[in-house]
Predict the 3D structure of the following.
Amino acid sequence: MVLARCCRPIPGDPIVGIIRKGQGLVVHTHDCKTISKLRGEREGWIDVEWQPEGERLFEVGIRVIAENRRGVLARVAAEISANNSDIMNVNLDDDRNMYSVLQFTLQVTDRQHLARIMRSLRRLPEVVRIQRARES
């Protein structure tokens, strides 16, 4: 089983499995744009569900739009860390406007863990918008 990189499913997400030649079973979120193109081809689709995994970590992307202020990256990173998540990657798009776009790849245990992180980030005064990022 492989978790699709386009939608990065995490426990708690509604999921679907697709058997792909050369890849085996690939698991996507049910609303993944990649599989929406394959809706007519139901061959190879399998009903799947999450098994209790314990404390396994899953990578997920988030996109944060924040006011372009000194120290905003440090405050956002500190809040993520305070919520027991590691940052695997960060990209900053600072076009010298009022806002910066911060894109993070985080490690979370499940959808509830991600929700706690996002709620915590929304409370920061500099954060204007936050959403889960999808590659597709």
About this structure: The radius of gyration is 17 Å. The domain at 58-133 is CATH 3.30.70.260 (Alpha-Beta Plaits).
